[in-house]
Amino acid sequence: MSTVKELILNTAWCKGCGICAAFCPKHALEVVDGKVRKVEGAGCILCGQCELRCPDYALYIDEKEGGQEQWVKSY
C-alpha cells in the first residue's frame, strides 16, 4: 500500500511570522492578512522545511496509507 502526503495548514494557530514561507524552496507559501496560505500553482514538493521551522506548529505534512501512489521511486 502507498503513502499519500498532504500539507495541512492550521491558520487558527498561525501568527503570520513568515518563517515557513522564507524557508520554502519552491515559494509555495505566503503570508496574507497575517496568516499563511498556499500559493496557487506553486508546486509544493512536501519537503517538510516549513513544518520543521514553524514555531507554532501551524502546519504539518500529513501522511495517510492508501489512495493513489505518490513519490514512488521506480528502478
Can you offer a commentary on this structure?
There is one protein chain. The chain has 75 residues and is α+β, with helices and mostly antiparallel strands. The chain has one domain (3-64): Alpha-Beta Plaits. The protein has 2 helices and 4 strands, in the order βαββαβ. It has helices spanning 19-23, 49-53; strands at residues 3-9, 29-32, 35-38, 59-65. The strands form 2 sheets. Strands 1-4 form a two-stranded antiparallel sheet. The longest helix has 5 residues, at 19-23. It is globular and about 35 Å long. The chain starts with a strand and ends in a 10-residue tail after the last strand.
Number of strand elements: 4
State which percent range the strand residues make up.
25-35%
Ranges with pLDDT <50 over ≥5 residues? none
The CATH first-level class comes to Alpha Beta
Order of helices and strands: EHEEHE
Number of domains: 1
Structural class: alpha+beta
Cα end-to-end separation: 18 Å
Let me know the average pLDDT. 88
Large-scale geometry: globular
Largest sheet: 2 strands, antiparallel
CATH architecture designation: 2-Layer Sandwich
Helix content: 10-25%
The CATH topology, please?
Alpha-Beta Plaits
Spatial extent as radius of gyration: 13 Å
Strand arrangement, major sheet: 1-4
Number of H- or I-type helical stretches: 2
